[in-house]
Queue: 4 jobs
Job 1
Amino acid sequence: MTIDSWIEFAKGPLFAVTFMVMVLGLGRQVLLQFYFLGVKKGRRLRNVHWKQVARETSSWVVPVRHMEPGTGLFSVASYLMHVGVLLVPLFLVDHIALWNAFLGLHLPAIGEGTADALTLLTISCAILLLVMRLLRSRHRLVSRPADYLLLMAVLLPFLSGYLASHPGVNPCPWNVMMLTHLLSAELLFVLMPFTKLAHVVLFFFDRISVVHWQLRPGAGDRVAEALYRKEVGAR
Amino acid sequence: METQTIAAKRDEIATPARRAFPYHVLEKPGDNMVDRFLEAFAWVLEYTDYKPLLDSYCRSTAKCNRCAVACPILLASGDPRDIPCYRTNLLLDTYRRYFTMGGWVKARFTTPFELTEELLYEMGDVFYRCTVCRRCTRSCPLGFDHGLITRLGRYLLSLVGIVPKALQVSVQEQLEGETHNTSKVSRAGLLDVLSFLSEEMEESLGVKLDFPTDETDRDYVFFCAVSDYLMEPDTLMGNAAVLYAAGDWDRWTIGLCNYDGINYGLFYSDWHLEQIIKRLVAEVDRLKGRSVLIGECGHASRAAHDFIPTFMGQRAPPVRNFMEYTLDCLRAGKISLDPDVVTERVTYHDPCNLARSGWIVDQPREILRSFCRDYVDMTPKGADNYCCGGGGGLVSIDELHDFRMEIAGKVKAEQIARTGADIVVAPCANCKKQLKELVEHYEIPCTVVGLHDLVLRAIEIPGGKSPAERRAEAALFAI
């Protein structure tokens, strides 16, 4: 197969399959969490201040009041990277055709200059985060390989997409860069449900620790019985 | 950059295996610690609701380190073991490896994370370097509750016998001992104390009040930290003064079968948390009481307020903290506080168990501002305030005294010193003990009192001595 036919494959069936993996995988996470909330916890939930939870969650959309000394640079870089990560894939002119074709969505387009600026912002913030994670001992100590690799996996589609649309700075042939862009984006789709990128949907469920503090009545007795009866029986 | 395995990273920063915990345990852990821990974990996942929480956390943990800058212990120690998400990941890694499909698959292809005895010793150490203050939760963009994970870790360790002896012995006495309270105060002992307090109040306030014990059909059944009966007479007299001045002396009682609001289960064991709550509610039911009134204790208040509804469902009696009651009386004009009695600079420490969730933040400040001429707030305050350093049960563990002074309470001590306050109000038995030790250790010239200690000085007592008279008398006897 030629590179161009690979590109057609990546734009067509492979895009559909990987996108479905992402949707189904993330959808499964969401459904499981709702099942837990609604079915298992449902009637037992008492005095949960959902408005307060919603207010606190939405305060992170523009988290100015959450700035803390010692994390300023990391927080700002992360926030700006997220802005680019959310806006460019959805509203870039070239992508809108994709959403229209596959999902029937008619999304508005952002201007080319804005898209370029956002993409460069995302790339530079991602590189900055990677460097900070490598250089700061506090970050290095809690990071495992996935934390570095996923940053690079997020960086790659943006970098390849920018180079593909700017032949002047692109060192490779356009179709090679385009294929890289498509495959790296599709890799992200597949990775999303199985890595920390799932925070895209799990973000809301992580924030409801007030619900998790409402422990299950009688659980302690059952655990003790199961655990110690065996030991007692063994004596 | 070399890729590190988890084991290599742990070896790099973990303390060498000493085969010892930094606190006494009742029984030395036997063999098969790892197997028993995993079995306990399996049963906990089976019967509790922790699985979705762990699933969610495993798949979202960002490792952004924002929790690190919020943690007063890490700020003081600089020890990477104190990074909240490092500690949480000890448990998440265990969960992922042994209880998820992804962990099982990954183990087939790579060198997997492995739970070892060294790791369990490390967990036993680091889970008790956390005061469960949950400041990190407010800082985490994903809202990870590292305090909840610390508790889960402690619960699992307790199921294999790894618990600080101080906490375990207290709980055993409370649930199975003769006195049924954590300080082994007998019923006769309690009645002696109440009689003494009665005499004190007659002498200082000028009114004869007998504490109502075992009265049935009252609106409030009162529980405080039982140690307050021994160590905080002014707080208790302040509570009594408010009840009397508000005309509610016939509306409350102390139960003689259970008079201890302390609940160490909140610190380390879901099982004991529930059992202690049930005993508390049983006492309220025995006395046909209509609600629970908790004295000045942070964790006792939170244990009752949050977990009575959780465990007792529809049968749950309402729960109030005494400061809420006092504020209602003040706002309704049922009590009156003399604004000329407390002239020293006063500041307020927010106990984590009252303030972190936003439950009790403004109420005590409103009370204090109504009669303290020179009231100043700490920075940060309210739900963002720093832990005293003795939370999560650490204050009760003598072996951790140096840790509490040098590390856990260091940021708090600096915060108190910055206010220039003469009096620090801390409406929590554990915070009071910790802060008193802290101000002595760091030679900060201030005293630590409960909120009702100050209220006692300023409250107008119908038919009794005025606050000014009482102040003059107290000055005569001051050393």
Job 2
Amino acid sequence: MYGLGILRGLGVVFKHFVETYTDDIRWWGRRYYNSEALKVRQGPKGSGIFTVQYPEEKLEIPEEFRYIPFLLYEEKPDGTKEDRCTSCGICAKVCPPQCIWIERANDPKTGRPIPAPREFYIDIDICMNCGFCAEYCPFDAIKMDHDFEIASYDRTSAHIWNKEKLSKPVAYYASIRPTNYKREEEARAAEAAKKAAKKSAAAEKAAS
Amino acid sequence: MTVAPAPTTTEVKLDQAFPEAVKPDARKGYSGYLVSSDKLVEVATHLRDQAGYTYLSSATAVDYLEEGKLEMVYHFYRMSGGPALVLKTQAPRDNPVIPSLVSVFPGADFQEREAWDLYGIQFPGHPNLKRILMWEGFHGHPMRKDWKEAYYEEDHKPFDLRWPGGQVYRSEQKNPFGHNVSYPQGFTIEGWTPEGDTALYAGMGVVAEAGGQMKTDQIVVNLGPQHPSTHGVFRMVVTLDGETIVDLQPVMGYLHRNHEKIGERNTYIMNMPFTDRLDYISSMSNNLGYALAVEKLMNIKPPERAEYIRVMMVELTRICNHLWAIGFLLNDMGAFFTPALYAIEERELILDVFEAVAGSRMMCNYMRFGGVVRDLPAGVLEKLTELITDRLPRKIDELDGYLTHNEIIRSRCIGVGVLPAEQAIAYSMAGPVLRASGVPYDVRRAEPYSIYDRFDFNVAVRYNGDVYDRYLIRIDEMRESLRILQQVIHAMPGGAIQTGKPQYQVRVPAGEAYGRVENPKGELGYYVISTGKPNPYRYHIRAPSFINLTALGEMCKGHKVADVVVILGSIDIVLGETDR
């Protein structure tokens, strides 16, 4: 019969329409602004209206999400900050759109370069969020951020980020990427233990 | 349909058939045959008619600056499957003339225009040798090795100014004008009038003749570039007789960014995130094609687990893409966004998986040479299993039931934009468009890459070659992808995900490689030449969206204006890939 296909299609639309109400009833007032409900709604079991009420509601950001790199610094017990970056330049060399500029620091006494950056710039307009810098940094000194709400009114003054703007404490990194942080810390501890063992072995050898 | 007779020998001895004109390419790391340009058409005809190589997959140019030569590289395939036969022909750089293959392989049309546009190779015998990606009146041929772009800094990345230089600046502060911009002689901005369009319209054959019983004039109408139905900035110049299409010329290049030139400035690994931005609906498959090409050159293989993860991601991408394509095909028909949103909802769930695994929903940048970036995070496989075994099959069935038997869709699609099998092959169509025309050609089967030879799946094929079949075949392919995915999830091995240590500077031995994959939109090929340096010497993309447009004009002739939109939608193009 002509028109049966259309009716069947409209049936699908009607089913979706009804589902929006049944889902509302199922959650009874807790469907929106509720992170638990949001997870179900946006998961494989979700039904009903799929949209998210941004910015009141936000999707959960997975750990691996990457957006604009940041630099890590360690907070020493005496309150000083120590950059993890050694200005080796691998991030600047691997950066596909070449948006990283690094100025190496010099020793104030001798004037020779030391393994630390004096300045570190990223042009976030050019950055393509590929994550190579974080991936290939041998010192875990640059990582990708989770903060994607970085709109500003003026690109010329606000979009070249310097070291001050880019630097964030290691604790922040640990909070956004806990499993990665844990894995890296374990690797560092193992590396340090290996080094110490080697050192003590060498010391023993020298003593004997 | 006609399949070329299966040849008795696997390898054609071209150099014996044409002892004077053809000799094997003896350069180190190269393969195929070098043909003298005056015999090219003859050899190509022989390949098509005698040897069964009916499909010209890719035709591209290479600039050998030091030798003073420009080279055209052609990749031919048999529709019965198997490896490529590669022909190369050279011409001097100062006067590059190579006969056109359009008369033998109409699919060479756009690719030769591209070679003329970007390399300045003349193709006598080409019916419409105009620029295609750049505009008419552009000075120079940008892919030539001695051509420099406006913000030119150095020939190869990484640039010294970044490190150890560290002098931060904005590109526009450097005032690029006057440095690397060259104008034709006597050019003034005030005196310039765009000539391209006049020439284009002149070629459209406008004749004020009465057609049929009603007295109508032929008129030329521009569809696009700013038009919601063109899926981006894409323009179709149509000659109309009343409301019937008499002629149609696609005009593209509005999104051209000289991706290949950027690719040749980049180091190998830097190109990976750039491939995401070609067909931005299916970045995972783009990654795979490039990784395969470079892995061929490096002669490495990823570990088992990485292969399985790759296939999983690529098949998910195919489902994503087809959901998107079907949704927007319906938009093009005027079913404003209800079907599209139902399809996009499922796509979102797959993108969530990509985000959890790769860190980004669309610009995945997930594959590396010899593996993938990272293993699947905890919980992803469970979510995927639920999606693949329960939700997606259900939702694809729902979409099928929703649309397939709808009488309006059937009347808009059946018999519209028909492309017969012979023409589809001749025009080098690829992917769902080719298979909907009754040609069961799928790179995953024809020349299996990665681990596709291990999976049980059917190559979806439909025989009418119209818009309706192109819609149906996408539904079929999604189901086949789900079959593959179920096998992948079931057999997913453990172990490493990367061969060797991750390197930011890979060593690529000199030579050439053509890596091709069955992208959701068709055959995506990467032609990469290495000279052993950190940067690729040549980096070419055989873009399915681009080459599939070659037959657009042919498919649209005789239909109405409203059908053009639907036919374009059924080809499923992405302008990021078309314009590169």
Job 3
Amino acid sequence: MLRLVMPEAKTLRYSIEAISNLIDEGSFKISENGIYMRAMDPSRIAYIELQLSRDSFETIEVDEEVSVGLNLGELKKRFSAAKPSDYVEISMDKGFFVIRFKGKGTTTFKLPIIEIEEEDVPVPNLTFRANAKLRSSALKEGVKKVGIVSDTIKFILTREGVSMVGESDLGEVEFLLERGDEDLISLEVEEEAKASYTLSYIEDVVKATAASEVVSISLNTDHPLRMEFFISGDAGRMIFLLAPRIEQ
Amino acid sequence: MLSEIEAEIRNCKKCDLWKEKRNYVPGEGNPKAKLFLVGEAPGREEDLRGRPFVGSAGKYLTQLIERKLGLRREDVFITNLLKCRPPRNRDPTEEEIKACSPYLIRQLDEVRPEVILCLGRHSARFLFNEMGMNFSKISRERGKPRRVRKWGKEVWLLATYHPAAALYHPELREEIETDFQVLGNILRERKTLMDFFQFGFCT
């Protein structure tokens, strides 16, 4: 028996959209505690982890934990067909992952479950000395503005605020959230930090901001970036790590 | 020495392709290249000139190397799985690959690159298998860099479509260029998350 119900499709829709841009196939662990998945992109530049606790669901009925391998590109297409406000029900039927949307009528998709080679994914164990919590919409705005000028984004966390900076032959751009800005919820900086990252990875993952109101950003100089998107309050989270871009 | 391998190739009669070819095409480039590109086999223009990737597909490949990677053609090493042109550019046979591929392996052993780019399904299948990995089809395997242990170091192996495919199927251009973008990221960003993680594995 496996049946999960969410009152709105948007959480899964936008989370899957963000993940599917980084990895092609994913293995979801589904249990009475919720849905969990973690993976690294093939180039080992990015790591992503999705946790949707049982509080994310209206109903959760799972006899035993199962691992469900799915093609994420195909899963994304199915969820793109749903309206964010659609009611969504998930079940399994003879090798198929069954997704039912109820909105205008009832749509039932059956997606083949695929076998995925279990890969050793290291458990990230990083500590950060600069942390900021901001509204996800502000992160999205900063990423968008840096993208006008550059394909690289530099994050700078100081005691005064959070900067996102882009530089290229086309010029420079800085998006600044100063301490006290209502979009900057908290800022804890033991040691100021700055590091550059490939923008395209971040552009992919900020698509999750549609399912998240708050994101925390953690940084050490020239070390991986950690972003944690809080989904539906504290019921779910998506953790994203990205290797820094260090020019040789 | 690469020059010794090249000399052997120029006298090779291990399969029948030598009979119909005009020139052997051993490959060329920087003997200390970080990036090693492997195509399928010489085409008409390559056969005439004795150099790899000098026809229309080669022109496109050179553009990709320069524009997407910011490198010059002479910075990289370019060769093919087969060193002689198969008649009418037909697919290489298993026998031909078996006979010719030891040259490629030896060239790789000499150059010891950090990144190997397979251009097309034939070189990708051969090199994936050679590195102990399964290969299903190019549309599924392309654009996903793999870390392999080789020559006492970590090496990247990546596959994309053969540049000639883009000439006949322009819709593949975008995918090839995306793969070169990934390749550019690898070449520029030598650090991956694995360089920072405390290793504790779980599946």
Job 4
Amino acid sequence: MPTIKIEPVTRLEGHLNVTIELTDDGKVKDAMARVTLTRFFEKFLEGRLMEHAPRIVPRICGICPEAHHLASIKAVEDAWDITPPTPAHKLRELLLQAKMISSHIIHFYALAAPDFVFGPFADPAVRNLIGIVQHLPNEAKATIAAMRFGQDLCATIGGRAVHPVTSLPGGQSKALSEEERDEYLKRVDEVIDFANFSLGLGKKVTNDYIDVALKVGILPTYYVGMANNGVHTYFDGTVRVMDPEGKIVADFEPRDYRDYMGEYITDHSYTSHVFYKPAGYPKGIWRANTLARINVVDKMETPLAQQELEAFRELLGRPCHATFAYHWARLIELLESAEKTKILLEDPDIVSTDVKLADIEPKEGEGVGIVEAPRGTLTHNYWSNPDGVITKANLIVATNHNLGAIEVGLKQMAVNVFEKGIVSELKLPEPMVKT
Amino acid sequence: MKRKHHNERKRLIIMPLKVAFLQLASCWGCHQSLVDMHEKLLDVIPHLEVVHWAAVVDYKYKDLEAIPDGEIDIGFVEGCSRTEEDVHHLKVLRKKSKALVSFGTCSTFGGVYGMANSYDIEECKKRKFLTADSIVEGTIPTNDVPDFEPFVVPNPEIVPMDLRIPGCPPETDVILKVVGGVLEHGLDTVVSILQDKGELYLWTEVLGFPHKTQCDECEREREEKQLTEIKRDYVGITDPKKCLLEQGYICMGPATLAGCGVQCPNAGVPCTGCWGPAPNVRDQGSKMMSALASISKDIEPEAFRKMVPDTVGTFYKFFLAKSLLPRRVKEESMEG
């Protein structure tokens, strides 16, 4: 029986292999996405001090450590019944927005764009970030400057550019100074301009590849993402679930997540498939990340991003099941993060020194923290004993929400390639840069 | 054929260094820190020919295996060896590389993932795949997935390493100094100096890094004060000018190698030791405990245990796999 293996799937962070098994007459028998690694955070967090969790869990993901730091501190404060001062809360939201800026840029330009710039069939030696730097140095410079804004702001608020340290139970260890704030305010308009430029590019790419977008990777699934009274948010709100027909079927508080999120463990992957529990597996397979968030919310939080959402929905509808549209959705979110960063920087609270409560007491209890990581809804859940030691931890990280759907999409794609030969019929544009 | 043409074209301009970046059990934070050289990427990239970097370039493992032995100038290893597959890839890159760099704390000491060594691997698997609270249907995956190593063992104990860059992650400036040092002095010179001297952290001197503890670089004021209590990190509001340790917070500075710019104390929180042990320190955690004991006054061991209810996570957050007691010892094996 012929077997096709892709080891590893590239241009993603992590360890994913793909196996496609064909029958002797060329039909797709099975397609599997295997994550070949796990690191056992759920176990080794047991016995740790609750306040150490936000300093350990960023090591789940070095591209989005801020999201883990913040979901973690929310879980700790929820368990100990602490509400941090408002300025600390705003600083944390700004930290997450800063990360969204750099992560969305690296995702679009370093992981995805090489396919559009050089074409999907270009030489792998060129079809990558390094190729972009060499062939399009001016565009690369602008991209790097905008990415740098996000990473610098992460370092200023979080204490370090990678693996933040400043969120403690009860607030932040460090306030933002007025000088620091002014420095970022000077630079933020350029980032908004860059986000607008990126959206133009994203729309062009979607139009150029519209045949691909509308014929390949159409995957009707459930969607999961946060909303604040229906408005797009990464940081504060409930978790919404949309069914494949576009109906909001749940809008729940973080503390109730176990009623809605279920994990299914396959025999062939170390990463679970998370699904909409009331619908069961595999019917309840859902997707998270940019497109899911854009689908579940009624509107964006900022004016320019809202205009762009309307344009998106006019062309692709709601819900949009086209996997290709994740890119466009990502750039709408990039614009919102740039706008929201400016709004937060202009908020007088952001330079307040009232960022940490002095009297904190551990207590026995369970806490849940949910934020949106760049690639989807992120849940940290810890149980504390009376001394503030973790007795149990449960984590649902962003990628796991998508893995069930990735496997369904993989099977669909394998049928398209090996049985229907659809790929050779697709209308593809000329590469932007010919190599 | 295509790839060869590409190489020839580039080599007319400059002879780039052939490099590979391997990701084992890690978070990609070391690579994020590398990417964070921002504008300098434009200067550095033309000097590199990347032959493997799964997150960035589309070469597969079979391409890596097909490279002749010793042809890669520098191989960078991020992450620890958690599975048999990780160990295999580590050994492959060793064979293919002239110089192998242990890139970051996970590779060098095991990092936070090494804390799993305080549990039996079967308990870890059970929690992850069978009993985690949101699991609806659990099973321990066995279909064509690599087996787990029973314990995390630091990579330099599995294969010889030529260079070790600590840090979780190593700061961008540190990476730049290493790459810049190699580009300036030539790989052979740097590696031969290191091999002659042979000391764990001598590269820090070669490449112009301080050979000091975090405290040596910290600007907070010290008064040689004695401690009568230990505070958890959330207690009170810290004094921004004074030594955190002398304020009662467990700051790993005295036991930890300098090089990161004392970022955590500068941000108002204690150092947790992610750069690994200070020069001439064998065991980072026990060094810190003895430093604490030497400045404590009238704290009975029982009271100390109450103030610090987690020894592993407090003193060995990044270093357990490299410590003097690097793993859980079963009772039966102690008897044996």
